[in-house]
Amino acid sequence: MAEQERAEIGGADFFARLDGLVASAELVIDRPRDSRHPRVPEAVYPVDYGYLDGTTGGDGDGVDVFAGDASEAGVVGVFLTADPVKRDVEVKILLNCSAQEVEQVHRLLNGVLEIGGLLVPRR
């Protein structure tokens, strides 16, 4: 099997697992759309932001989720972030986000919060 084919199969499995995780956990929104980041006041959330209750992300808290308005879109991708201040790396799920909302989140992560934001889209 070619390397690209293995990556695509692994990617499908990864996103299927994320679908299951999202379906089995309650989404808690602790930073609604248009609210400000607690430590970076110039950072305004373009979509709802929260976490999956009962899960554990890279920072020890619940798995982070950006939730948009494209209802029924499901998990459309993830952002991989690296925060030099907190000294952590995380996966942030993009749930029900339109292409425009994904771009807005990308600008927030890279341009304002400066924690990277490598998009891994669902194919």
Word description of this protein:
The protein has 123 residues and is α+β, with helices and mostly antiparallel strands. The chain has one domain (3-121). Helix content is 29%, strand content 29%. The chain has two helices and six strands. The chain has helices spanning 3-24, 99-112, and strands spanning 27-31, 48-52, 63-67, 75-83, 88-95, 118-121. The chain has a six-stranded mixed beta sheet with strand order 1-2-3-5-4-6, sandwiched between helices. The model has no long low-confidence stretch (mean pLDDT 91).
**What's the total number of strands?**
6
Unreliable spans are none
Spatially, the strands of the biggest sheet line up as 1-2-3-5-4-6
Label the overall shape: globular
Work out the helicity level.
25-40%
Q: What's the end-to-end separation, in Å?
A: 19 Å
The average pLDDT value, as a whole number, equals 91
Q: Note the beta-strand portion.
A: 25-35%
Number of domains: 1
**Radius of gyration, in angstroms, nearest whole number:** 14 Å
Largest sheet: 6 strands, mixed
Instruction: Output the structural class.
Output: alpha+beta
Q: What is the chain-wise order of helices and strands? A: HEEEEEHE
| Oligomeric assembly | single chain
In DSSP terms (H or I, runs of 4 or more residues), the helix count works out at 2
